[in-house]
Amino acid sequence: MFRKLLLCVDPYPPSNTLVSHAIALKQVGAEETILAHILADAPLELDTMLREQARPEMEQQKQILEEAKLKASIAMEAGIPAHALNALAEKEDASLLIIGTHGRGLLESMVLAGSPLGNVSSKLLHLSHRPMLLVPNALPTKETGNAPPELFSHLLFPTDFSDTAEIAFAYLETIVRATQCPVTLLHVQDRSRPAPHLGHRLKELQELDGLRLQRLQGWIKGLGAPDVRIDLIQGNPGDEIVKRAKSCGCSLILMGTQGKGITREILLGSVAHHVARHAAQPVLFIPALL
Ligand code: ATP
Ligand code: MN
Fold it and tell me: How many domains does the chain have?
């Protein structure tokens, strides 16, 4: 499923978190990795210096990947990071991009400054049509060794029952088949938008959503997963997903980049965007079909 991984690495400060996740993804088919680092356009002399600075760290990561029996290569290019990474993912036909977020403080200060898309990961999420694993930098890196973090110890799957969530569900099935990991299926009934015309049918809607979740639960249990929970709550979807991720102790959130919204030209829906910015856990985003 995720045969070829593009790791978007920024060697400063050095972190092996993305590399560890790449190794964990071997369980779901990873075979080949590209360590990609984009440098700012610079005059030749400076460019050479920047490349030389980044190389030792990247060579070390390459070696770790190879020791874990993953094919690995290094790609260093000059350009605008998000655009260059997206172009590289297309050129290499990467099955998955893995990228770290910046520190929350930095991101929030950019939001306050009116530019929520001010960092590479956020821009890339809006640009790319490929699955993407967004890894919060705040996660502690394993200082000793490079044992894969427990990426698949408990998966949270938020769904709005949209077509895109259904595509994400197919990925969930594959992951569960391979890892048998515990799963929580979550639907948030959006009460932030009042729908007066539905007032008298809220109970019916509640039952319907419950049945939908039970159907998904039955399906995942049928794949042999020992622990599949369902969670039907009311509130603001973005906020609730972030809260639930924390309270259920999940290791990974798997969700669509779009949902039932109708603005197809915007590649990242508002709930997805909120989770990307605020979740403390890695998020695996599955894009809508073009
Ligand atoms: P928007 O809602 O901003 O118009 P959209 O509907 O296209 O955009 P999102 O709502 O961000 O996109 O949906 C992205 C993903 O978020 C969905 O595929 C689903 O995984 C998750 N999601 C969205 N709404 C809910 C919800 N109410 N409960 C659980 N998960 C949700
Ligand atoms: Mn939506």
Answer: 2
**In this structure, which ligand is nearest to the CA of 160?**
1
**DSSP labels for 55-106?**
HHHHHHHHHHHHHTT-EEEEEEEES-HHHHHHHHHHHHT-SEEEEEPPPHHH
Please state, in angstroms and rounded to a whole number, the distance separating the CA atoms of residues 251 and 154: 5
Cα(77) to ligand 2 centroid in Å equals 36
Q: How far is the CA of 259 from the centre of ligand 1 (A)?
A: 4
Domain of residue 55, CATH code = 3.40.50.620
Residue with tokens 């077509």: 163
Q: What spacing in Å lies between the alpha carbon of 101 and ligand 2's midpoint?
A: 23
Q: Which of 209, 258, 284 to mutate to test the pocket of ligand 1 (most atoms within 8 A of CB)?
A: 258
- Ligand closest to Cα of 257 equals 1
- Residues whose CB falls within 8 Å of the CB of residue 71, separated by 6 or more in sequence, listed in order: 31, 32, 33, 65
Helix (H, G, I), strand (E, B) or coil at 215: helix
Tell how strand 132-135 and strand 283-286 pair up. Answer: antiparallel
pTM comes to 0.91
212: CA distance to ligand 1 center in Å?
16
Q: What is the pLDDT of residues 49-89, one digit of tens each?
A: 989 989 999 999 999 999 999 999 999 999 999 999 999 99
Report the sign of the C-alpha dihedral through residues 160, 3, 153, 178, in that order.
Answer: positive
pLDDT tens-digit profile of 14-49? Answer: 678 899 999 999 999 999 999 999 998 888 999 899
- Ligand nearest 190 Cα, by number? 1
Is 149 part of any domain?
no
Ligand 1 pocket test target in 132, 160, 231, 234 with most atoms within 8 Å of CB = 160
Domain of residue 121 covers 4-135
